[in-house]
Specification:
The complex is a heterodimer. Chain A is of the alpha/beta class. In chain A, the strands form 5 sheets. Chain A has a 9-stranded mixed sheet, with helices on both faces. In chain A, 47% of the residues are buried. Chain B has a single domain, classed as Glutaredoxin, CATH 3.40.30.10. Chain B contains 3 helices and 4 strands; from the N terminus they run E-H-E-H-E-E-H. A 4-stranded mixed sheet of chain B has the order 2-1-3-4, with helices on both faces. Chain B is globular, with a radius of gyration of 14 Å. The two termini of chain B are 26 Å apart. The chains are: A alpha/beta, B alpha+beta. The interface between A and B is medium-sized, with 27 and 37 residues.
């Protein structure tokens, strides 16, 4: 079925979580998209997942053409992602075209040849299952199988044309040598150059970071830049379209109370309903209290709250809460609170994530609090931890749940851990709690460092804690250098003089 | 003497396919007088067979007998490689006049 080349290009939703936001709706329909990446960047998974999501979410059949691993290997490899390819095959939704090298002697080449047989087999397979999706993995492996690269290059071009005529939407994987070098080996981008997606697996200051970038979609739009993704057990690739998601969800603008009226005011009217708030502070400076108030604030409005505790036991948490006048036991009895207290060491981070997801699915909360992420951070590599946070964040955001994650800083005064890019960029808001040493006295300070999509109070305010909870007071007017951990007293007279220069607007 | 069983897979009767057929006929005539069976299979007409045999490129020549099974691809214009690829050792064809190239 030939299509007019000038008509607008439709998109086929891939179904891969998050990817359709980055691609502005999916892959160009009826076209071939090149998925390029270095070894271990997740190309084969994405290619297979494109077909899997087609079957699972849209009832569309797929053909997987493999040039490197045998069909048996691929079935087994993706089984760990929870994909039962054999069941799809049995149901007539999936078929393999196995073009992997036959074990045994090398093939003897005796003159010119073409990929005619492969094209015929693909056509047959597409017809047999009524496929609308095709994945080829990988182009590099074809070049390894055959000696005459110029023949293969021409023939792959012919293959791309044949796929277009079949009317299928296809992905082809290709290897590249450098994360930021040539698009792919063997110059393969030349014949499927219209649409290119790049997967990266970059080591950044000892941190692993997986990203996906749409390099180009000819004749149609897409989001620009790299977006982090992770590979989740039982799910596959999950893309976190950080900035893209904001644009979509910000329209709702629904605010919820943090549980503390003064903090709500500092945040410009409360947290956003589907936002993730990171709460950073040294040990004992009020994180658990704020978590408690966040939960109480939800329960008071009839919202369901899930508390995931990794530092303190249920009993301790309940005692803490009652010390601040919050009755967790009553909340639980009302069915509005569930506390899951686990030791981080009981299992791996991935298992924690699965357990958390199941708890969220079962309890269906409006708010989730994690106290603390730092306890889990100890458990894993930086990469593993980042993937955990991304996985949890995307899961929570997807369900329009408000999240509050606490992070413990190592130093009592100041603290750098919040700037650990891998967490802070994922969260929408950051609140810092700090000890402030002033004239020989330890005081507590709080500031809203970041509040995505909203104006907020920029002051560092003093707060106190008593039997009814947290009370946020005035800004520290005569101290500077609090966040850096080196508070310095500023002579009040100088301050008054400065303030007099401006017609001070009272805080909102 | 064991009989050679050869199958040549093509996709449509293209110039390349016809060249491969002609080359194979000539080589068989020269090297295997009467001791071979040759079959040409067009995958356009029988794609299922391409799937069964896992053919990727055409032309592909498969020597089914005698063992071991051999795969040779291309239009068979390089006779030396075809002969060695089919394990047609010179000693097998030493009954006098057939030993040399018909030049």
């Amino acid at each position: 079925m030939s299509k007019e080349t000038m008509s607008t290009i439709e998109k086929l939703p891939s179904g891969v979580p998050g990817l359709d936001i980055v691609t502005d709706g999916g892959l160009p329909q009826g076209r071939t998209t090149l998925i390029s990446g270095t070894a271990g960047s997740g190309k084969t998974i994405l290619a297979a997942q494109f077909l899997v999501e087609g079957v699972k979410k849209f009832g569309e059949s797929g053909v997987f053409i493999t040039f490197e691993e045998s069909a048996v290997d691929i079935r087994r490899n993706v089984a760990s992602l929870g994909w039962d390819i054999e069941a799809y095959e049995a149901a007539g939704h999936w078929t393999f075209v196995d073009a992997s090298p036959q074990p045994g002697e090398p093939v003897v080449e005796t003159g010119d040849y073409d990929l005619g047989a492969l094209i015929v087999r693909i056509e047959l397979a597409v017809q047999r299952v009524g496929a609308t999706r095709v994945a080829l993995d990988s182009l590099g492996a074809i070049f390894n199988q055959f000696q005459n690269a110029s023949i293969i290059r021409n023939e792959l071009f012919r293959l791309a044309v044949a796929l277009k005529q079949m009317g299928v939407t296809a992905v082809m994987t290709a290897e590249r040598d450098d994360e930021y070098g040539r698009i792919a080996r063997h110059g393969v981008e030349e014949f499927v150059a219209d649409n290119v997606i790049v997967l990266r697996n970059v080591l950044e200051t000892e941190k692993r970071r997986r990203t996906v970038e749409v390099l180009k979609f000819r004749g149609t739009t897409h989001q620009k830049g790299e977006y982090p993704f992770t590979v989740m057990p039982d799910e596959g690739i999950v893309v976190i379209p950080l900035s893209a998601i904001k644009l979509k969800q910000r329209s709702s603008n629904v605010r919820i109370s943090s549980g503390n009226a003064e903090l709500d005011a500092m945040c410009g009217g409360g947290f956003f309903r589907d936002s993730i708030v990171l709460l950073s502070g040294a040990t004992g400076c009020g994180k658990t209290l704020m978590t408690t108030e966040f939960i109480a604030g939800g329960v008071n409005r009839g919202e369901r709250c899930l508390l995931l505790a990794f530092e303190e036991s249920r009993h301790q948490l309940m005692r803490n809460a009652s010390g601040w006048g919050r009755d967790f036991e009553a909340y639980e009895q009302a069915g509005l609170l569930e506390i899951i207290a686990t030791y981080p060491e009981t299992c791996g981070l991935e298992d924690h994530l699965i357990a958390i997801k199941h708890a969220i699915e079962r309890f269906n909360p409006n708010r989730v609090a994690v106290d603390s992420l730092s306890a889990l951070e100890r458990m894993a590599s930086v990469k593993g931890f980042r993937e955990f946070v991304i996985g949890l964040t995307s899961f929570i955001k997807d369900r329009e749940i408000a999240g509050l994650f606490t992070v413990t800083t190592d130093t009592l005064l100041g603290g750098e851990s919040v700037t650990d890019g891998h967490i802070s960029t994922i969260t929408d808001s950051i609140i810092l709690l700090r000890y402030v040493e002033m004239l020989g006295e330890m005081k507590r300070g709080l500031t809203v460092l970041k509040m995505r999509g909203s104006p907020h109070d920029k002051d560092i305010r003093e707060f106190s804690i008593d039997g009814t909870g947290m009370h946020i007071g005035r800004a520290f007017r005569s101290v500077s250098g609090i966040l850096a951990g080196h508070p310095q007293h500023v002579p009040p007279r100088e301050l008054e003089r400065m303030e007099a220069l401006f017609q001070d607007v009272p805080a909102a | 003497m064991s009989n050679y069983k050869l199958r040549l897979y093509i996709t449509g009767h293209t110039a390349q396919a016809e060249r491969a057929i002609a080359n194979l006929k000539r080589i068989c005539a020269e090297e295997l007088q009467g001791r071979y069976q040759m079959e040409v299979i067009d995958l356009v007409e029988d794609p299922e067979e391409g799937e069964r045999q896992r053919i990727v490129v055409t032309p592909t020549l498969i020597k089914q007998l005698p063992p071991p099974l051999r795969r040779i691809i291309g239009d068979l214009s390089d006779k030396e490689r075809v002969v060695s690829g089919l394990d047609l050792l010179p000693t097998l064809t030493d009954d006098g006049d057939a030993s040399g190239d018909a030049s």
